[in-house]
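Take a protein:
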Amino acid sequence: MVSNCANCEKNPPIENSHILPKWTIRHALHGSVTGILRATDNINRRLQDAEKVPLLCRDCENSFSKVENEAAKQFRAGAIAHGGTYNADFFRFLVSILWRVGMVRTDQVKNEAPRFSAAMASAIQIWYDFLQGSRADVGEYPVWFDILDLALAKKVNACMKSISTDTRGAAPVINRYFADWLGCEVTVYEKSGFALVWAKTSEWIIVGVVDVPDKTNHTSIQLSPSGGSFPSADHTLPPVVLATLGNQSWECMRVSSAMKPAQRDKIQESWKQNKAKVPASKQSKALEADLEMFGDDAWVELPEPKGGVKGQSCFGKGSHNL
């Protein structure tokens, strides 16, 4: 990945730098009935952890951890919520994640979506300069942030219905996708010229703007370097965010349907054994939310929607919490 630490450029990187903070991964597993992560590129493969890469040295990893720990305290206090407030340190925490994702995915973008390579390099540099304190803002590469909940799932569903030729909407696992998938990607829409750095936990999404021709409704989820308020409960979202979440909900369904019958049987058995221990698990609540939105269709594996939602490419890896 890098010969020396991507931050200080002096020390050799450690092998296990997390892209997403480890506490967000632990929280996702805590909300799981089975306590298992699986690779999205091979759903039959169990993982011990979310993605780690040689990126930062130990000193820089510890320095970043201080910012992450403060964000974790804010999360545990329930302060990361619609209408809640955040400070400059939380904004810095988000930029640090976007910068890491960008650093790890930059070669993929250069090779597979060269149209966005220059903009990607510029975004990474601006985010790095901000983290180093050499600039006070992130310029034309802002941070978008939103909380994953049932209200957002309904907005995604409505958006997908409006842009899909079959009017099907989001996949009937949209709430389980919100709860179960962890991902660090660069999402591009080649024809329309969109490129986003995408980091998703089981609670919220962080979007780094690289190239967005249409910023409709962006102000409702754009955060400020000096702090401010999280999006309100009734906020609007940029169509590209809604479309990306919708497309990824179908990808979640496609990947899950590829599981071998024997693996599926093991997971179902684990659910039966452990559900009573964690009746209020995030996964159980997500299933209930999907049933509320889609009725019996939430139990059915449907084909992908056709037509107007095509064109998205994602460069990166994720893990599925089962």
In short: The chain is about 40% helix and 20% strand.
